[in-house]
Amino acid sequence: MFAYVIRRALYAIPILIGVNLITFVLFFVVNTPDDMARMHLGMKRVTADAIEKWKAERGYDRPLLYNRQADGAERVTATIFYDKSVRLFAFDFGSSDAGRDIGQDISQRMWPSLAIALPTFLIGLLVYISFAMLLAFFRGTYLDISGVTLCVILMSISGLFYIIAGQYVFSKLLHLVPVSGYEPGWLAWRFILLPVAIGVFAGIGSSSRWYRTIFLEEINRDYVRTARAKGLPEGRLLFGHVLKNAMVPILTGVVVVLPTLFMGSLIMESFFGIPGLGSYTIEAIQKQDFAIVRAMVFLGSALYILGLLLTDLSYTLVDPRIRLS
Fold first, then answer.
1. 56 assigned to some structural domain
2. What's the domain range around 208?
């Protein structure tokens, strides 16, 4: 088991290095520091002195990969690549182009993101699996057909519609919850209740339909027909055997989603004014703060790779045969 974990972790290292190198090329070779300076200062009437001053204030005036003017190790460390990319592996995100500490911003904004994403994930998982098992239990009946039709309708509607409609009905008409905003502490539930409800409802269509497909595939296997022939009740068969054996494909979709709990939802946080990491990324893009964008891209990649590693580990818990592969 330990060797399996080490092997999977070693697989993740070159992937993360590759993502970091691609990010560096996109931000500093394709889009040079001079281009960044012109975007911030304005494309027209920008002097060369202003560009050099802007680059010097943010550490973009150094050589990209190798500093010939430095001595010793500083020939490598006194470069943009080391300062802006290599340090990310130690989760040293540095400062934003506006001068703010990115690491401190992330530590503050991660909690509002988790306050929305974690309840949405847990409640949604319970609702989706329960609804999918209900449809699988009554497969082929009018209830199943009606449920699948409802899922197709729900998944055909844009998520923006649920957000706008929810804000209009529950905030402006009924005045049950605030339209937007956030307040730390126990009163935060007033601001996260509607985003959580919308997030769960918006995912019913696609998620429930996917889980139903998994359950139906397991129901048609030989071991289920054998258990049914021996007189095992359908409910016990569904909950005791089908659900257990369907955990591998379910975990594939569940564990990979876990990193997004930390990163937050870009659209949801922006529309509801939640000061999480999702809105943090959107604001950085709008302000063209490339330092924050780079940090969030790296963090998102690291968390996604961690999610894949957790997926592999979770497989070994539900199917010990995978440990041998």
1. yes
2. 103-324
